[in-house]
Structure formats: structure tokens, C-alpha cells
Amino acid sequence: MRNYLIIFFTLVLGVSTLSHCSAQEENGFTEIVLAQIGNSKIKMVLRKIHKHIYMVRGVNGLPSPENQGFMSNSYGILTSKGWFVVDALATPELSKLFIKGLKQVKNLPIKYLAITHYHMDHWYGAQNYKAMGTQIIAHKNLKATYEGNGNLVLAATHKRFKVFKNVKLTPPTIVIDKKSKRFNMGNVEIQVIPVTPAHTNTDIMIYLPKEEILFVGDLVNKGRIPFVGDRNASSRGWIKYLEKMKAYKIRMLLTGHNNPLDKSAIDFNLGYLKYMRKEIARMKDDGLTVDQVKAKLRKTPYTKGDKVDFFHNLNIYAMYNKIGITEMLEEEN
Ligand SMILES: [Zn+2]
Question: What's the 26 CA to ligand 1 centre distance in angstroms?
Fold first, then answer.
């Protein structure tokens, strides 16, 4: 991840709200500034983070007219057989910029797009890939969401955040169910591994065994609390998969929202989820209401209590409702 390549190029952008910038030197290495987002100070910057991996990193926060939905990461793995992309960003405008950036690095076909889970900021930019014949890999439950209430959720999301006007939901062409799949990309072997239910019921992770690099979507977070408030989330499943993840050889951990991490980042997430499950189960068993639990868990070893991450309270409500004594006993065995 230290070998940042110096690349010089500029991009002509076709998106009216995104203005054009050129290569720029920052923090001692040169990166490709793909675009300035809207009228804001936010920039989409393509960085080389490994011999054949490139990334853009979104900003923290919810989608807004200011960030135009650029609040998540997207990765391009360059192989001798073409590109393999991880996560689609939140809108077709954003993924178009990312694709143009990859093509500038190397004009090879984008063979595959893997979507780590169904949340808007990882899935909603997928239509551009479909348009150029990229195979789209996702968990089978993402396909079920597409065929089910996906468009209702999209309409509600658009209404709330105002930045998803041009999104057309795109289904996977390759589904992952219970078994992992291998993709031979010439010089790079890529494994797609189901890890669901955890953060959602559509989680997959992507592993490069030779490089020892693992893409984990939102299963690992640094600097923010893991979000377990999705209706299809399972804190128990999440803990199980984080334990499994720890058995992998990992030189670089690539997430949905952070800069590249090392393996130690797993522990904060595991610790938080285990602590919360244990405390909530105990308090629920003692007859405390969800609001009493919320008050008691304002301060934890993982949350300071002054500026509580807003995911934390959502997590308490979701976990309080799901956790039962049966589930706890299962977990302890
Ligand atoms: Zn997510």
C-alpha cells in the first residue's frame, strides 16, 4: 500500500454537476483527481494502494446535495484479463467518473463488478457496468431484493436524500449463495465468499489469496460504530464471520468507508458487537425497557457518551428486539 504510482492525466467529464480537475500532489505522492463534487470542496480522487489495486474514498455522512451520494469507496483490481471492480458507488454519475478513471489507468474491459451488499452506497451505481457488459456478482438475496421491494426502497431513498434521480436498480448476473466462487483473472486469483447474515442479508467479501488482501464491505469499520440496525442484520452472524475473518492471512483490509486498514481493525468491531449483545441480553432479561437500556448504554468501552454515533442508538433498538435468551444460549455453546 506504500507504493503509490505517479500517474499524470486529466479527465474530460460528461457530468454537468461535477467539474473537472487535474492530477495533484498531496501527502507526498501523486494521485488522480477525477472530479470536484458539485460546488463543494469534496473531490473524487483515484489512488493506487497496491501493485494492482486502485480506490476512491467517499466522505463520511449521509447522502446530501453537497456530497451527491459520494460517501463510500470503490475499488478496481487490475489483472491480465481486465478489471475486477468492488462496489458500484451510490449513483450512475459517480460510477461513470470512477470507470473513466480506471480506463485511463489501463484501457481494459471491466469484466466483473462485485457488490458487497445491497446498501445504496454500494449498489446504486451499478447500471453503467451493466451497460458495458460487465458481469455483476452479488449475493442471491440482493437479487431477491431487486425482484421484491428494491424499487420501493429506492423511491423512498430518493425522496429523502434527493440525490438518486437517475438510479436504475441493476440485478446481479452471477449470484452467490452458500458457496464461495473463484474467479481466475490470469495473474490474480479472486475468491468471492458469502458472509451473511451479518451487516445485512446480502454480504459477500472478496479475497485475493496470493496478495493476502480482503475486501469486507461494511463488516469492518474504523472511526465509527458498526451499523447493525438494518432489518436483515444479524449481530450473531456478524460476530461469527468476524471470528472467521481473523483466521485469514490479511496484509490489507479494504472496507466500504475507510482508508486501507490492517487486520487489527477487526477487533474493535468484534468487541463492540460482543459487548452490546451481552449487555443488551442481560438487561432485557432483567426486565429493562429499550429506553432504559439505551440510557444505560450511552457510555460503553466503545462509545464515549458525549457525541454518541447515531448508529449506536439504532443498533440498541434493533438488537434489543432481536436478541432472545435462546439465541444467547446458542451463542454460548
Ligand atoms: Zn452498508
Answer: 29
